[in-house]
Amino acid sequence: xTTRVKPKKNLGQHFLANDGIARRIANALxxxxxxxxxxxNTLEVGCGTGALTRHLLCRNDICLKGIEIxxxxxxxxxxxxxxxxxxxxxxxxxxxxLRKIFAEGDIAxxxxxxxxxxxxxxxxxxxxxxxxxxxxxxxxxxxxxxxASGPGNKSYGILSVLLQAxxxxxxxxxxxxxxxxxxPKVKSAVIRLxxxxxxxxxxxxxxxxxxxxxxxxxxxxxxxxxxxxxxDSVPPQFAGLRPEQLGVEDFILLTASLG
Length: 259
Hints:
Layout: E1 15-16, H1 19-27, E2 40-45, H2 53-56, E3 62-68, H3 71-80, E4 88-90, H4 98-101, E5 108-112, H5 118-127, E6 134-140, H6 141-148, H7 158-164, E7 167-175, E8 180-181, E9 188-195, H8 205-217, H9 223-226, H10 236-239, H11 248-258
Parallel strand pairs: 2-3, 2-5, 3-4, 5-6
Antiparallel strand pairs: 1-8, 6-9, 7-9
Helix pairs in contact: 8-11
């Protein structure tokens, strides 16, 4: 009897049903192995029913492992896509130590990310930015636009700044609701993150995060007011501005002036 996977609301599961889109996502991962003939370590987050997995397994230029929290999905993959089983971990990605999944080298991350934890996934990426040079992910269109957004846009926010400090972000394409089972109520989008050349922020990274969060936590206020919990002396060139008016480099300069 064929195992069936019932999409679970608490896991934010919407299974991609369009094979052509799955192939496009899998092919959006740029191969950057550790050297000639060395495949790129790649971790798929949330293998589900294997829509992406089957295309990733066909790529000889990557070393694929998967992580899946849902036991029913794992049973399905065991029956229908056994090739992934030796490298499939049943675990919560957000609680996993990425350095223990692959013995060495950088790790590219790819997946159809659950809507309910997509932001947390990217915070996890930031925590591991020294070993994660690339991310290809499908997520809610609104969130994808936020991550790729620049200064002056309403969607520009905390994760926009924190991610763009370390990654170049490309909005690749939009995916309609009816390409999933069950269809979500919103459109999805695929984005690609690629590590930029920055090795140091040029300011205290902990304070940088605090400044960005405090600024956007009260985004309608000027920085003079929104940063009162951190400082009483916001430099005059920033004091009258709102957070969406500052680019990444501006936030770095602001943080350095406070440190």
